[in-house]
Design brief:
With 384 residues, the chain is an alpha+beta fold. The protein contains 12 helices and 14 strands. The longest helix has 43 residues.
Length: 384
């Protein structure tokens, strides 16, 4: 009789034992699949969400003198050395790590006469600025033209303006296209205009006060990007906003470490379940082993029977564990993350899971198989 046939018949005769072994393998590899799939999917989703948080690199001139404030950076323009230039945007977009950059948003801050008041006006590239700050919510329309203005909530209240109203800045009439809802920040007291218009009104053509850069910080080398920018613009100082970068990294890293720890515990429990079940199976099959030895089966053949059973059960447990893991990830990932997370099947992970399940099953069965093979034939025959 062939060894593989004996192994298959043994499994059929003991469905409860086979069930517990498959269950242990499912628990072990299923936990790993669940955590790995959930973490990877959440990493990708978090990366997209983190891109929406805003800038994580600030670029300012090295010799800057400070009086005006924006985004935690104070600005004063007193000489050519205190400004960046428009071409610096191109330089940032062509650094070696430019593929990791999501948004480059240049700005010019200038105090201008606004309806008889000296107010801070921020010149921006609206498409880039709106991409950098997708959380902006405003009443009115999206500013697009050179004459369009976006007001902060406090500025609109003080000036008594609403979307569609005219606004005179430095003697020229512009149109309020939108009013930001309260942001709870200094942006509430600012006026946002097209960059070229502010440069012209302030007499600072081609000049920039600062450049905000948003990088894919969950996957990119932030420090390398900062170094690249400093190399490309020798008169500028690029600085990673440490709090933003660290907060984003810590969220993902903490969750990753926790899930891997849980997966390791479940994997250990599953392994022990397989080991204990296989040891119990050897004790129950002492009579059977004695018959095999009496019929002339060698130790290697006895081991082969047990390991064949482990191989088959490992394949079954791996397939079921992968399916259960993906299903669990689809359920748990959105609950844990608090956001919608897309979890897709991964054929490579599926194949790796089956290999892992086979390895687990064989390793957990190795000791019981050796113990069965070394069973004293005379002792075993007493059970016949």
């Amino acid at each position: 009789m062939r060894v593989d046939s004996i192994a298959l018949k043994n499994m059929a005769r003991r469905p409860s034992k086979s069930f517990f072994i498959v269950l242990g393998i499912m628990l072990a590899v299923g936990a790993i699949v669940t955590m790995y799939t959930a973490v990877n999917s959440m990493h990708m989703e978090f990366a997209d969400r983190f891109d929406e948080i805003g800038a994580n690199i600030m670029v300012v001139p090295k010799t800057q003198e400070f009086t005006l404030s924006y985004g935690g950076v104070s600005i004063r323009g007193s000489s050519d050395l205190t400004y960046l230039v428009n071409d610096d945007v191109v330089r940032i977009n062509t650094i070696p790590n430019s593929d990791n950059i999501a948004t480059v948003a240049p700005k010019l801050l200038a105090p201008l006469d606004v309806m008889g008041r000296k107010l801070v006006v921020v010149g921006v590239d609206f498409p880039q600025e709106l991409a950098l700050k997708p959380w902006w919510d405003y009443q009115g329309n999206t500013p697009r033209g050179v004459m369009d203005v976006l007001l902060g909530a406090d500025t609109a209240r003080i000036l008594g303006l609403a979307p569609g109203d005219p606004l005179v800045i430095a003697g020229e009439e512009f149109r309020v296209t939108g009013v930001l809802h309260p942001q709870g920040s200094e942006e509430d007291g600012l006026i946002f205009m097209q960059l070229l218009a502010v440069q012209r009104l302030a007499g600072l053509e081609d000049k920039l006060s600062l450049i905000e850069v948003a990088a894919y910080c969950t996957t990119c080398p932030i420090e390398e990007i900062v170094a690249d920018i400093n190399d490309a613009i020798h008169y500028a100082q690029a600085t990673a906003l440490g709090e933003a970068v660290q907060a984003r990294a810590q969220v993902v890293d903490s969750f990753t470490n926790f899930t891997y720890a849980v997966a390791a515990v479940v994997f250990f429990i599953g392994s022990m379940l397989v080991l204990v079940t296989m040891i119990g199976s050897v004790k129950e099959r002492t009579r059977e082993i004695g018959i095999f030895r009496a019929l002339g089966f060698r130790q290697s053949s006895i081991m082969e029977i047990f390991l064949t059973e482990a191989l088959v059960l490992g394949v079954i447990g791996g397939i079921l564990g992968y399916g259960a893991g993906v299903l669990a990830a689809r359920i748990l990932a959105p609950v844990i993350a608090g956001i919608e997370v897309a979890v897709e099947p991964n054929p490579i992970l599926g194949g790796s899971t089956i290999i892992l399940a086979i390895a687990l099953s064989l390793l957990a069965s190795a000791y019981p198989a050796v113990k069965a093979a070394k069973l004293d034939p005379v002792e075993a025959m007493r059970h016949i």
